[in-house]
Amino acid sequence: MPQLHAVISGASIAGLSSAYWLRRAGWRVTVIERANEFRDGGQNIDVRGIAREVLFRMGLFDAVKAQNTTETGTVLVTSTGKVRVELPFGGEGGATAELEVLRGDLARTMLDHLPDDVDFIYGDTIADVTDVPDGVEVGTEGGLSLRADLLVIAEGVRSATRDRLFGDAVDQKELGIKMVFGTIPRTPTDDDRWRWYNAIGGRQIHLRPDNHGTIRAILAYSRGEDLKGLDRAGALAVVRAHYQDAGWEASRILDAFDTSDDVYIDQLTQVRMSTWHRGRVVMAGDAGWCVTPMGGGGASLALISGYVLAAYLSTTPHNLETALTSYEKWLRPLVDDVQSLPRGLEYFAYPRTRLGMAARGAVDRVIASRLFRPIAAKVTRVAETKQVLPALRDAAEQAI
Q: What is the biggest distance separating any 2 CA atoms in the chain, rounded to whole angstroms?
């Protein structure tokens, strides 16, 4: 029986998880990544819920835990840096999770444990996809032509391939939140906590420790001028003007962003799709259901998606429609749960007035109280389900 071939577009968490598990299920795997080399950078992510079980099954739980960012908890601070509220932390729950790692560290750990015969094509993107008998022909901008039994689109929230192939099934909702992420030098005033500051005008400032001797900084704000279409310098100029009177560490962060080689600017967009598969093409990760940091759990869902996809394909490898339908049916309730954002969340997370800030402060104190801590911890729980992970038959089992 000829070996089935999967082409995966995107080498981040969802793409690497799909590559790992499809190879375990006996598929030949080719990964196409638009970057010229593997991307190690990125901000904090966490692994929660049933995604932890996926890591255990990969044999990577301890390896990922060893990459912990060193963050020990989360505090909300005043403009002088004084702690006003400490958020609950409790192992799997809490704002800071037990498996709190950098995106690049998790991705690198997964990459290092992939089978050697997973093929990577860097510096290239998909140009066209054509149906052929019993497969698809994937053409790249670099002139390659790859025949595949399955194409997995794991390109992230701005996926061009998704928009070409699933345009009528895609709903992209702008959440009105701008975020600038970057790595900045650590100073003696930094510590091992996630420090979170809110300023009026719907502005947030975050400083988080990492395990590389630097600090991961985030500026996030509600509404304001559109950053799309601006180059980095132009976007940072707009953000600097927006944070001119924000206080706390705003000036330090913006000055460091000017020279940092690891700055990422985004406008949060939630992606919803009426279907995640058509024919021999299937979505995985943010390309199919970006939940954004407002919902949380994107990395966990990406890890889970690769396993669940491969598991159903391993039990029905020659009934693709059944496998992909089962994959979507199993995973969609987890995604829907995270994408259903509470009404008013933006105004709570990004107070715009002094009155709003005072109300937020009162709620924060209640949430952090001993009585409400168990309830607050539940809010951070994602990727939890009573469903059992489907069994995956590896290549050896399928040969029997």
A: 68
Q: Which residues of 366-377 are buried (b: 16+ CB within 10 A; e: fewer)?
A: ebbeeeebeebb
The predicted model scores a pTM of: 0.94
Q: Which region, left, alpha or beta, applies to residue 228 given φ > 0 means left and ψ of -120 to 50 means alpha?
A: beta
Q: How does pLDDT run along the chain (400 residues), one tens digit per residue?
A: 689 999 999 999 999 999 999 999 999 999 999 999 999 888 899 999 999 999 999 999 999 999 999 999 999 999 999 999 998 765 555 677 788 999 999 999 999 999 999 999 999 999 999 999 999 999 999 999 999 999 999 999 999 999 999 999 999 999 999 999 999 999 999 999 999 999 999 999 999 999 999 999 999 999 888 898 899 999 999 999 999 999 999 999 999 999 999 999 999 999 999 999 999 999 999 999 999 988 889 999 999 999 999 999 999 878 999 999 999 999 999 999 989 888 888 989 999 999 999 999 998 888 888 776 665 555 566 778 999 999 999 876 665 5
DSSP assignment string, 68-115: -----EEEEE-TTS-EEEEE-EETTEESS-TTEEEHHHHHHHHHHTS-
User: For residue 81, what are the CA distances in angstroms to 76, 94, 125?
Assistant: 9, 21, 45
